[in-house]
């Protein structure tokens, strides 16, 4: 049986850790990883040297600079530069090194701010994106277009996967850089420990988001990588959405916080609604396994284990 050499760029991040957990023990794969000290993915020469030396069959681009509204607003130059460079270097050098397939991760931020719900790939680039995440979103749009260009000109089987908001073990918990679920877990846990009577959150709580537990993602990636003729951008969504207010109340209960939740409507809350039409990936046979309530309990258990100094791993 032929063994596929599969390089996961960004193996230490939220998505990368989930991919390594799922793929690390497979006998049909030789999984390749590299730390930032091994290869700076924003440096084209470093990426070229690494890929020419390692010669992977498949490159999975799970690397990138990610974060919530506050991080995007405070570091827009970093968000567009790093994400553009990482995608450009890895796609170009994967082709030059003879890789046959590239899986690149996009983001639901790629869709226009005012977009019919649920969002469909044909709606991409039909209107302006949400301004608070525009540098990140435009970098991700460029990665998708670049992948399609290399498929058209060079035959590189490049597919862009667009997951909904991901959460789970391995996520950032720094309130300035975290996504919404991990940020709320930390906020409510800290508030319970300090016996605070109230927690203030940005926005009105009316924005609606779709969430996917990160360990449900690798099986969707396997489905896409198995396609001889990969489809265009493919949404990967759970089909389960909540308002941020509903989400906050759910996480507060799970974390044991019994105080008030207050909303600062002067702060931004992003696009009003972001849900994905995942018809294509569902038609290929994939479906998620973890509902939101279960995923939040698992993520909270993982976070509490990290706080207690337990070695990293997936909470049961």
Describe this structure in words.
By secondary structure, this protein is of the alpha/beta class. The chain has a single domain, classed as NAD(P)-binding Rossmann-like Domain (Rossmann fold, 3-Layer(aba) Sandwich), CATH 3.40.50. It has helices at 14-23, 44-54, 69-74, 76-96, 134-154, 180-193, 217-225, 244-255, 279-283, 292-307; strands at residues 4-9, 29-32, 58-61, 101-105, 157-163, 165-167, 198-202, 208-213, 234-236, 241-243, 260-264, 273-274. The strands form 3 sheets. Strands 2-1-3-4-5-9 form a 6-stranded parallel β-sheet, with helices on both faces. Helix 5 links the parallel strand 4 (101-105) and strand 5. The longest helix has 21 residues, at 76-96. The chain is globular. The two termini are 33 Å apart. The relative contact order is 0.14.
Write the layout of secondary structure elements.
Elements: E1 4-9, H1 14-23, E2 29-32, H2 44-54, E3 58-61, H3 69-74, H4 76-96, E4 101-105, H5 134-154, E5 157-163, E6 165-167, H6 180-193, E7 198-202, E8 208-213, H7 217-225, E9 234-236, E10 241-243, H8 244-255, E11 260-264, E12 273-274, H9 279-283, H10 292-307
Parallel strand pairs: 1-2, 1-3, 3-4, 4-5, 5-9, 6-8, 7-11, 8-12
Antiparallel strand pairs: 8-10
- How many helices does DSSP assign? 10
Poorly predicted parts: none
Order of helices and strands: EHEHEHHEHEEHEEHEEHEEHH
The named CATH superfamily: NAD(P)-binding Rossmann-like Domain
Query: In the CATH hierarchy, what is the architecture at level 2?
Result: 3-Layer(aba) Sandwich
The share of residues in extended strands comes to 15-25%
- Total domain count: 1
The end-to-end span amounts to: 33 Å
Query: What is the CATH topology?
Result: Rossmann fold
Helix fraction by DSSP (H/I, runs of at least 4): 25-40%
Silhouette:
globular
């Amino acid at each position: 049986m032929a063994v596929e050499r599969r390089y996961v760029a960004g193996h230490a991040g939220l998505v990368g850790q989930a991919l390594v957990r799922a793929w690390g023990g497979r006998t049909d794969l030789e999984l390749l990883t590299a730390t930032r000290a091994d290869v700076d993915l924003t440096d084209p020469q470093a990426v070229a040297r690494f890929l020419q030396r390692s010669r992977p069959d498949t490159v999975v681009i799970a690397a990138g600079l990610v974060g919530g509204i506050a991080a995007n607003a405070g570091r827009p130059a970093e968000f567009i530069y790093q994400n553009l460079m990482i995608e450009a270097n890895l796609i170009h050098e994967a082709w030059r090194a003879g890789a046959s397939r590239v899986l690149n991760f996009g983001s639901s931020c790629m869709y226009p701010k005012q977009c019919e719900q649920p969002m469909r790939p044909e709606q991409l680039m039909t209107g302006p994106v949400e301004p608070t995440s525009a540098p990140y979103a435009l970098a991700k749009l460029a990665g998708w277009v670049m992948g399609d260009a290399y498929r058209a000109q060079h035959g590189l089987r490049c597919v862009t996967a667009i997951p909904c908001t991901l959460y789970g073990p391995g996520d950032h918990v720094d309130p300035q850089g975290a996504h919404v679920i991990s940020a709320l877990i930390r906020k409510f846990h800290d508030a319970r420990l300090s016996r605070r009577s109230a927690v203030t959150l940005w926005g009105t709580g009316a924005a609606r988001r779709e969430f996917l537990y990160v360990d449900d993602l690798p099986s969707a990636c396997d489905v896409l990588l198995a396609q001889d003729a990969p489809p265009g951008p493919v949404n990967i969504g759970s089909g389960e959405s909540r308002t941020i207010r509903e989400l906050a109340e759910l996480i507060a209960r799970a974390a044991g916080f019994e105080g008030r939740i207050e909303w600062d409507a002067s702060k931004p809350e992003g696009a009003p609604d972001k849900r994905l039409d995942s018809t294509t990936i569902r038609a290929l046979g994939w479906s998620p396994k973890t509902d939101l309530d279960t995923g939040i309990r698992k993520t909270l258990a993982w976070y509490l284990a990290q706080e207690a100094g337990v070695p990293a791993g997936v909470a049961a």
